[in-house]
Amino acid sequence: MSVRNGSDYIDALGDDRAVYLDGERVRDIRVHPAFRRTVGSFARLYDFQAAPENLELMTFDIGNGRRTNRAWKLPHSYAELVERRRALEAWSSLNCGWLGRSPDHVASTLSAMVMGIDLFERHGPARAKAVLDYYHHARENDLFVSYVIQNPQADRGKTAGEQKNKHLVASVVDEDTAGITVRGAKMLGTSSVMSDELFVANIQPLGRGEEAYALSFALPIGSRGLTLMSRKSYEAEARSSFDYPLSANFDENDAIVYFDDVKVPWERVFVYRDTDMARAQWHDTPMHVYQNYQSQVRLMVKMRFLAGVARRLAETSGLIDMPAVKTKLGELSAEASMVEAFVLAMEAGGAGYGDYFLPSRSLLYAAQVKTQDMYPKAVARLRDLAGGGVIMLPSSVRDFEDPYLRSIIDATQVSPVRDATERVRLFRMAWDAVGSEFASRHVQYEMFYSGASHITTANAYRTFDWGTALHMVDDIEALQGTPPLAQSAPAVPSLIASG
Ligand SMILES: Cc1cc2nc3c(=O)[nH]c(=O)nc-3n(C[C@H](O)[C@H](O)[C@H](O)COP(=O)(O)OP(=O)(O)OC[C@H]3O[C@@H](n4cnc5c(N)ncnc54)[C@H](O)[C@@H]3O)c2cc1C
């Protein structure tokens, strides 16, 4: 049986991808100090699934002697959905939930396109064939696909077509028998620098006359004209895994994606010049739900990790037996359990969709609203527990090398349960989780990855079961009845006067 492993993934990154950082084109992301360790973390996901003891948990048989990750699975029952989630959970646990756009995210999107293939059929048989062919290609090769679906912020009071530069937002500028040519930008590709391919789409509302922006397609990251402008690298600045264990190993990167007249063959075009289809693909198929369900599974893992860090901090500082501290830990553990409860409820409350079984749409949106609000508060709770301990630290691991400084570290980094090195190590990890620039980016990520709050609340409002809620209100109103009719009551002169 063959299955993709870490070295298969790393080998595939040796293309001519145009990644720019600090004013220079990066020659090879696999060895560059801004990316190499996180590339290693993604590679470990593939190595994990390829280990004989994990094959069954992580992969499934797709014939021809190949197995692929369970993220590509289209579940037909509750049991299959749960079996697939266990694989997502196991992968996420390898990075404690810090890799937001791991390969299972967009694999979920593409799988959901297949579950909603009827919609693409109505858009056009050639486009539906492109979806199916691409899904099979990506699934068979177990590709790491990232996506860009949001447009650059620019003037938020205007739509894509109303911006001064008509090609600010990625749009089609030409077409011929081979395919289309795309020019312009998409906002942010998380993990795109390290992925095999990119899925490009539009999720923001488009009106008539904006057909040029109504596109969905996929292409290899190394495609000619595809330019990735990386944000600042936290990995490059993390001096060591001891000092910044999360920044150094899980900086999945975010990049502005620019299409410099990029050619996309028709076989990779899924939505073309149809503004309603650009919207419908997300909300009239399971795409939006299935990809964001994966995000909640990942957040469940991350919240467990944060609860663990909080508990260790309390133990290390000798706070653990104080009732007020237990209350704080109780709040944090309840938040971690809430995310888990949402995941389990989405599955238990799931429903059939044609031949498939999908997580509950309304509970997914409820989870998004609650968790984007919860995450910054959870981080604040951790900061509260940590106090100044996350600042009262040696400048870096190199201070340990100097005997004199080492003696001061041993004398000052005191804990009832840990030695000085262990105490510094823990507080370093805690700072990287809640206070470093990496941590701060994660707060922004959890608040925004699924859309700003006015979008997620609108989705929750749209999908809530108002019928059941209002029915109960109607029942009580019926119980209340109507007041008896007034029987020849005398008229109130002041009311008659005022009309
Ligand atoms: C770390 C990170 C990683 C990301 N990764 C990806 C990725 O991999 N792929 C991708 O496609 N995108 C990605 N994004 C982009 C993400 O999808 C957007 O940030 C998100 O959709 C919100 O859009 P915005 O940033 O333009 O904010 P806006 O929508 O402009 O929101 C900013 C503020 O304005 C308010 N606001 C804006 N419009 C309205 C309105 N009409 N009514 C009321 N309030 C309004 C919002 O509520 C919010 O408070 C990422 C973002 C971050 C921060």
Word description of this protein:
A hairpin with a 2-residue loop joins β3 and β4. This protein has two domains: 278 residues, Butyryl-CoA Dehydrogenase, subunit A, domain 2 (Beta Barrel), CATH 2.40.110; 183 residues, Butyryl-CoA Dehydrogenase, subunit A, domain 3. It is of the alpha+beta class and 499 residues long. 44% of the residues are buried. Flavin-adenine dinucleotide (FAD) binds next to β5, β7, α16 and α17.
Task: Give a brief description.
The chain has 499 residues and is of the alpha+beta class.
Topology:
Blueprint: H1 6-12, E1 18-21, E2 24-25, H2 36-50, H3 55-58, E3 59-63, E4 66-69, H4 78-93, H5 103-115, H6 117-123, H7 125-140, E5 145-148, E6 171-175, E7 179-190, E8 197-200, E9 215-220, E10 226-230, H8 234-237, H9 245-250, E11 254-265, E12 269-272, H10 275-283, H11 287-316, H12 323-348, E13 351-353, E14 356-358, H13 361-386, H14 403-412, H15 420-434, H16 437-448, H17 453-463, H18 466-480, H19 493-498
Parallel strand pairs: 1-10, 5-8
Antiparallel strand pairs: 1-2, 3-4, 6-7, 7-11, 8-9, 9-12, 10-11, 13-14
Helix pairs in contact: 1-2, 4-11, 5-7, 5-11, 6-7, 11-12, 11-13, 11-15, 12-13, 13-15, 13-16, 13-17, 15-16
Bound molecules: flavin-adenine dinucleotide.
